[in-house]
Each structure stands twice: as C-alpha cells, then as structure tokens.
Amino acid sequence: MMRKDSTLGLAPERLARLLGITLHSAAGKGKEDSAQDISELIRAHLAGTLPFDTTVIDELPVIIGRLRNELIARAGETLGAVLTSPESDLDTLKKVRQYAKRMASSKSPKAKHAVAVAIYFAAIANALVFHHTKMTTHSYGSLRTSFGDLAKRPWMPTELVRLLTKAHKICRKKAQ
Q: Is the dihedral of CA 79, 143, 128, 152 positive or negative?
C-alpha cells in the first residue's frame, strides 16, 4: 500500500510560497514579544499574496488538482482577503488551516506561533460563517472560547475581529 504524502515531497519553503505565508519572521529571539510585534507580524502575513510564480503554478495540479484554476484566478490576492472573503472555497481554506496548524506546531518564536493560531482559527471561522461548515473536530463550545479569546487580542486586525466575532456568535447558538 502506498503511503499518502500530502506535501508530495515539497520543502516547507515551497509550501510557504504556495500559500503566500513567509516562513521566517522578523521577530527577534530571546525577548518577550509585545502586542505591537505580534500585530505587525500578523499584518505582514495577512498582506502576503497567493502565488503567481509560474514554477509554483506548474506544481499546483499535482498538489491540489482541480483547485488550480481557482487559485490562479485568486493569484495576487492577500491571505487576509482569502480568510475574510465569502467567496473563498473550502478546499483552499482547509489548505490554509493545515499549513497554519503545521506552522503553529513547529518550534517557532511566540509571536509566530500566535500568528499561526490566529490564521488557523480564521480559516475555520470563514468556513463556519460563510459556508455553514465546521471543518474541525473542535466542539462548538471550544471554538466559541477560542474565537472569543482571539477576537479580544489587542494585535488582532479589525477584519479578523469581525470574522471571529461572527463565528463566536454562531458557536454560541450551536453550543446551546
């Protein structure tokens, strides 16, 4: 039986380019990250664009098959726009969520971990708010808590606060 490799052997740097997420932050090591540092880092990640590099686009059919045309159409769109758009498709959101999950579980600075967690839950929130789909095994109660906590962070961009707040309300109703 063949082992299924979801990354098809791509290095983390190539996966990061595919998703428009940088692997290396400007945050320094050995110091406590401030809300301002995390705010700047999440804004930098959200401003990153989806790839239009032809080498990455040529790999898209192998990596995500039928989504190739949709991603090409969205090339140049920021990660922030993808996370907050009602038009973002579930497969793209799942890829972003999975990448953010891997990014959060890697040994990275505290600020980068916080950004990865925010991106992870923003992808889940988009699916819940715009597609009425819970694309996680987390309970509605657990999601409600996470969305509420993240929305209160001083470094969270306004557009994500709105999305997380909507998802929080949905989870509050579903958890009852």
A: negative
